[in-house]
Amino acid sequence: MSLSALGNATLEVEVTNISSHGVWLLAHGKELFMAYDDFPWFKNQPVSAILHVEEQAPGHFHWPEIDVDLTEEMIEHPERFPNRANVV
C-alpha cells in the first residue's frame, strides 16, 4: 500500500493584511510590514492586485499587476534604499 500527499503545498508567501497604514506580507514564517510611506506603490491599488504576489526567487517578491519587485532586505530596511520610483 502506498500513501501519497493530498492537496496543494502551503504558500511560501502571502499577503495577510491590508490596512490604512500598509501591507503585511508573510514569507517563510516571517511577517514583513510595508508601510505606504516607504512603499507608496501599494496605496491606491485594488486588493486583488496586492494579493497577487509571487516569489521569483528566495526572498524576491513580485507583484505582476502593479509591476513591483522587492526583496526581503528592501522591505526590512527601506532606509537603505532611498531611490524610489515616482508614483502617479
Looking at this protein, list some descriptive labels.
2 helices, mainly beta, 88 residues, disordered N terminus, globular, 6 strands, three-stranded antiparallel β-sheet, 11% helix, NE0471 N-terminal domain-like
How does this model look, in words?
With 88 residues, the protein is mainly beta. The protein has a single domain, classed as NE0471 N-terminal domain-like (2-Layer Sandwich), CATH 3.30.2020. Helices cover 11% and strands 34% of the residues. The chain has helices at residues 47-51, 72-76, and strands spanning 13-18, 22-27, 30-35, 54-57, 60-63, 68-71. It has a 3-stranded antiparallel β-sheet with strand order 1-2-3. The radius of gyration is 15 Å and the shape is globular.
